Amino acid sequence: MADRRRSPLAHLTADLAATGLLREIPFLRSYEVRGDPTDPALARLGAALFPGPLLAAAWPSAGGTTGTGPRYALWCGPGWYLVVDEPVPAPGEAGQAAPGSGEPGRLLAEASKAVPAAGGPGPTFAGAVAAVPAAGASGAGLAEAIAAAIGADGEPIGLSAVDVSASRTVLELSGPQARDVLAHGCALDLHPRVFGPGSCARTNLAKAQVILHQTAPATYRVFVGASFADYLARWLLDAAVEYVEGEPE
Hints:
Layout: H1 13-19, E1 22-25, E2 28-35, H2 40-49, E3 71-77, E4 80-87, E5 125-132, H3 142-150, E6 159-163, E7 168-174, H4 178-183, E8 199-205, E9 208-216, E10 219-225, H5 226-239
Antiparallel strand pairs: 1-7, 2-4, 2-6, 3-4, 3-5, 5-8, 7-10, 8-9, 9-10
Helix pairs in contact: 2-3
Protein name: Sarcosine oxidase subunit gamma
Pfam families: SoxG
């Protein structure tokens, strides 16, 4: 019998919950999309992923805001986006994709003509989030929409879309002290007049590279690499000690 999947922070679930501030949101389906913002292929992909009146805001810039919806795009840098969707179902769960139809970790062959990577770790890039509606009952799933859009004409394109669902997990901080906890290890100015709901930034938190996304006035999501998740979660647990009611002196 195959082992059940475990999230990177499954062993800390109780500790995170005990703070009243922290929880893990594991297994979110996500794709890194890179391309030239002027490339028609990127516009076509945006139309497939984000149909309807929000099409103009499908690929966010540094000045936008977010709304609600299970699928949204985070601006990580020029021509670099993280598309986030609903959690990936576990094997055997209802809704699990059939083999070969967009399973987690699959590199889309149709996107093999990738643009050059943007230099790896470096300075912080701050941006904004564009919220988009989920595909309707007749719409394609995320992987299928990407494959159909960027492979439509069979011509080489300067665009890549890679499933990175397994590479990160998400730590959510919520409550009136969430911003104070983050301030212990984040150099960004998180004051609401500068960084409010709908903002995102690729930055460092306690020396770990993260994508920070504020989803509500007192709620933040921290996208962190799976290999750094334990370290960062324990750091956040320590930073939250002074804000936890009933914590011993």
